[in-house]
Amino acid sequence: MLDIYDPAQPDADSLRQRASEAEAAALSVDGITNSDGGNAGHGVVDVLIATSNGFSAGYQRSSHGVSAVVIAEKDGQMERDYDYSSAVFETDLDAADAVGKNAAKRTLERLGASKAKTGKFPVIYDRRVAASLVSTLAGAINGASVARGTSFLKDQLGKK
Asked: pLDDT for 91-130, tens place per residue?
């Protein structure tokens, strides 16, 4: 059995409290000037499957999340960034105040950024960017995508 359902069902007040904690923690950091808000959510998906030959089954999947988006301003330059935590189980979420403080840290790190000169440089991707790149690559090398011609590898079929 998959362990993808958390019976914990937070109410609106506890979600509002979690969102407020994330936002307050971010706003408490020097240099953070504004907030686009803290957010907290919970969801449950019920999946039911039935076939014409008599098979039927179902399962539930839950999700919990908390995030904060904040703004910093220095010398007329404004930057915005965020942090979030999501988990199947509420107890696995990062603390709301840690999410808020990390959102503030990420936002402040963007202040004073400048473009690098042209050249060859080693690249380190942020975990959020890396996950997106891996997902895009996985979709491109999927056999069905290649066969449908929707992959950038479509013209490479049969080549080494």
From this structure: 999 999 999 999 999 999 999 888 889 999 888 788 778 7
Topology annotation, domain 1-114: PmbA/TldD fold (3.30.2290)
Dihedral sign for Cα atoms in the order 5, 7, 12, 14: negative
Predicted TM-score (pTM) of the model is 0.78
Q: How far apart are CA 137 and CA 131, in angstroms?
A: 10
H helix runs in 53-95, sequence order: none
Degrees to nearest 5, angle at CA 76 with 99 and 107: 15
Contact 71, 78 (CB under 8 A): yes
What count of Cα atoms within 13 Å lies in the side-chain half-sphere of residue 49? Answer: 6
Buried b (16+ CB within 10 A) or exposed e, 124-141: eeeeeeeeeeeeeeeeee
Q: Where are the domains of the chain?
A: 1-114, 116-160
Two structure tokens written together for 40: 């907290």
